[in-house]
Design a protein that fits this description.
- The protein is α+β, with helices and mostly antiparallel strands.
- It is 31% helix and 30% strand.
- The protein has 2 domains: 31 residues; 201 residues, no CATH class.
- It contains 5 helices and 10 strands; from the N terminus they run H-E-H-H-E-H-H-E-E-E-E-E-E-E-E.
- The protein has a 5-stranded antiparallel β-sheet, covered by helices on one side.
- Strand 7 and strand 8 form a beta hairpin.
- The chain is globular and about 50 Å long.
- The termini are far apart.
- The N terminus is likely disordered.
Length: 246
């Protein structure tokens, strides 16, 4: 009788061990994104969002374009991810918008040395492959077109940087955008909405742009309560499977 019990116990242990060997692969398959041999990126954050899935597909299918010509990765002719139509603008627009944003936010303004440093930064940006455009888009996705200055330049650490300035009809920083008159990321249209895309070197980030409302609004928020743009944290984070040089 004792021999039968030991044999049964042994079989149970073997069976349980077999099941335990299967558990890790079953568990991880629910967390990680399924990748094909041609995949270069995977979704670190936002796997449940359609925009993240579609952007991942676009990135993996056009990785050479992303590496070699990042400014053309999102184009006006793309069906899924479309760059808004834009026209070239002069450097004066960027200089004026940059100085006005500094006056508004006082970022890095520590005495006159801070001013000189910021002015030198504007000059350096202009000399680093700067491209300046104006586009008319609904940047905060609230139903009204906004006049937006897009300034793109090359940063030694992060590659190409895109700064977006909401302007009024005179070309000054828009006063009615009390929040978010300046935003960051390359703007693109996806299913009728504006998003921002940034290459953070270790991952690709997608930001969702939404209306910003008065903080003291306690009832249902309405269109008249909008005070600008709210750019949240990364909606999507797409990471490379291995180190990619760009």
């Amino acid at each position: 009788m004792g021999v039968i019990m030991n044999s049964t116990l042994c079989n149970r242990i073997i069976f349980i061990g077999f099941i335990m060997c299967l558990l890790p692969s079953t568990s991880f398959s629910k967390v990680e994104v399924e990748t094909s041999p041609s995949s270069h990126f995977f979704i670190k954050k936002g796997i449940e969002r359609e925009v993240c899935q579609d952007f991942l597909n676009h990135l993996n299918e056009n990785v050479q374009l992303y590496l070699s010509r990042p400014r053309y990765f999102i184009s006006e002719g793309n069906v899924v991810f479309r760059a808004p139509p834009k026209v070239l603008a002069s450097e004066e627009y960027y200089i004026r918008a940059s100085i006005q944003s500094l006056l508004k936010d006082k970022f890095g303004m520590d005495g006159y040395e801070g001013w000189f440093k910021q002015m030198e930064g504007i000059k350096n940006n202009l000399n680093n492959e700067m491209q300046i455009y104006i586009t008319n888009i609904d940047i905060n996705n609230e139903g009204t077109l906004d006049r937006v200055l897009v300034a793109s330049y090359r940063n030694p650490r992060y590659g190409y940087i895109n700064n977006n300035y909401v302007l009024n009809s005179e070309g000054d920083l828009a006063a009615h955008f009390q929040v978010g008159a300046v935003s960051h990321g390359e703007l693109f249209l996806y299913k009728g909405k504006i998003y921002g895309y940034s290459d953070m070197r270790t991952y690709v980030s997608i930001i969702e742009f939404t209306p910003a409302y008065h903080r003291n609004v306690t009832n249902k928020q309405t269109h008249k309560d909008i005070i600008g743009l709210q750019a949240g944290t990364s909606l999507c984070k797409l990471q490379p499977l291995s180190k990619i040089n760009n």
